[in-house]
Amino acid sequence: MTLPSLSGKRAHIWQRISALYLLFYIPFLAWISVSLPQQLDLIGLAKTLLSPVYLLPTLIAIVLVLVHSWVGIRDILMDYTPRARTVYWLWGLRWVLILTSLNIVWVLISLFLMP
């Protein structure tokens, strides 16, 4: 990854798309959480929200949160870190987001496989 290959216009468009989706998804999630019958625990609420009706919008929201955070942190790193070290910081950020994504996948798998 070299710095001249990073496009600001595409990143800006992705950040706007993710912000717009999350602007509608978060109130939808709050409305669903309030309108559902009272859950006794967090696992019951998570299983309800991971039903097929809510699963696709939730997965899209998780992916777009990762995209939004990647673009925001990338822009901060490009603006405020020394130019010689920016590539290393961006590679570190990429690994943090990969590990975060793997952790989210692990949590989803463990929730689905729970008896």
Architecture overview:
The chain has one domain (7-113): 3 helical TM bundles of succinate and fumarate reductases, CATH 1.20.1300.10. It is 81% helix and 0% strand. The protein contains 4 helices and no strands. The radius of gyration is 18 Å and the shape is elongated.
Sheet bearing the most strands, described? none
Our count of helices gives 4
Structurally, the number of domains stands at: 1
- Uncertain runs with pLDDT below 50, 5 residues or more? none
CATH class: Mainly Alpha
Considering the protein shown, what is the CATH homologous superfamily?
Answer: Fumarate reductase/succinate dehydrogenase, transmembrane subunit
What portion of residues is helical?
Answer: over 70%
User: Which geometry do the CA atoms define?
Assistant: elongated
What would you say the CATH architecture is? Up-down Bundle
The mean pLDDT is 80
- CATH-assigned fold name: 3 helical TM bundles of succinate and fumarate reductases
Secondary-structure-based class equals: mainly alpha
Order of helices and strands: HHHH
Give the percentage of residues in beta strands.
Answer: under 5%
| Rg result | 18 Å
